[in-house]
Amino acid sequence: MIATTFEIVDRPHHPPFRGADLRNFHLGETGQWPAGEILENPHITLHGLDFEKRQAILVETPSDVNLSHAPFYSITQFEKAERIWTVSFETMLQLAQSVAVDDKRLISIYSVGRCGSTLASQIFAQVPGVISISEPGALSQLVIVRNSGAHSEDDLVALLKATVCLLCKTPAETAWVIKGQSFVIELGDWLHEIYPQTRNLFLYRHAETWLRSGLRAYSRVFEGTDEERRARENERRGVLGALVPPIANYDANLLLSHAEMLALMWLRAMERYVQYCTMGMEMLAIRYASWRSAPRETAEAMLEYCRCRPADMTAIWETLNRDSQAGTRLSREALDRRERAVTERDLEELHWHLQHHAFIHDPDFEVPNTLKL
Questions:
Q1: What is residue 370's DSSP assignment?
Q2: 67, 118: one domain
Q3: What is the CA radius of gyration of the chain?
Q4: Residues 54-99 pLDDT 10s
C-alpha cells in the first residue's frame, strides 16, 4: 500500500467549510511512502474525502499541535498542516481493517449547533485518556454525498466506518469523542448500525435564541440590490441544501431567506433526534439552558452518563470559565462586533415553519430523554 505526499508551500484560501480539497493549498514537491506509516504516526490525521478522485486526504501536523484541544478540528488541521498525504479509497479501507474501535469507549455528540457542543467537546478534552475530535470535515462530506444519492449505501457505510477508524487510529485509554457539525446528525442511523454501543449526546436550545445566535454567527448585514441579495441567498441555499434535505427539497420557486434556512436546519436536527429515539437509540439530550443555569451539574451529569467522570474535576471547572471558541471567528469577542440582529420578520418566518412542521410547533419543544437537574 502506497501513500502520496505533498509539501505545503502556501494556503491561499480560507479554511474549507465542507471538508478537504487539495485546491485549498499550494503544493510543492511530491513523494511516496508506505501507507502503513499513517497508522504509526499520531500526527498524520484524516482531513477529508475526495470523491472525485476517490482518495482520502490526510495532513501531517507538528508534534506540538494537540488537535484534541482544537475547537474546530478541520480548521486547525488546515492552519497547522506541514504536509499532505493521500491514499486511494481502497487503501483507506485496507488501513481501517487494522484499527479496532471499541464502541463501548466511543462517544458521539450531535447537536443543533450554537448550543454548547463545542464546550462539551472541550470538557471531554480535559479528561485524562480522552481523545476529542471536534468537527472533522470528512463526516460533513459524507453527509453531502449521502444526500446526493449518487453512491450506494453499502459503499458509503463502508467509507463511514473507515473514516471513524482513521479518526480513532490513535489508542484512547478512556474514550474517543467525536462531535460533528450539526448536519452530521444525518449519519446517526448508520453510525448506530456500525457502533451500537456508542454513548450518544444531543445538545439543543430554544429555537428563538438559537436563531438569534445563528444569525449573529453566520449572517452579515448586506447592502445591495434586491437582485444581488437574491443571488446571495440562492448561493447560500445551494451550500446548505447539500447538507440539509428540507432546504434542498423546498419549493425552488419560493424565496428562502437565511432566517428560514436556519429554521429548517433547527427543525431537521430536532426531528432526526426524535426519529432516532423512536428507533431505539439510547441518547441523552442536554439543553443549552442547563449550561447557563447549572454548568457544573450539567458537566458532571454528562461525564457520568458517558462513564468518564475524572476524580479531579479542576480542569473541567476551569474549562467552564473559558470561551470554548476563543481565537476563532466564532469567539464571544468576535461575535460581539457583529451587526446582524434578529428582526421581527426573522421571528415570523421561524414561527411559520414551526406551525407547518409535522409535530414540532413550539420553539421551546422538549425532546425525549432531556437531562433534568
A1: B
A2: no
A3: 20
A4: 999 999 999 999 999 999 999 999 999 999 999 999 999 999 999 9
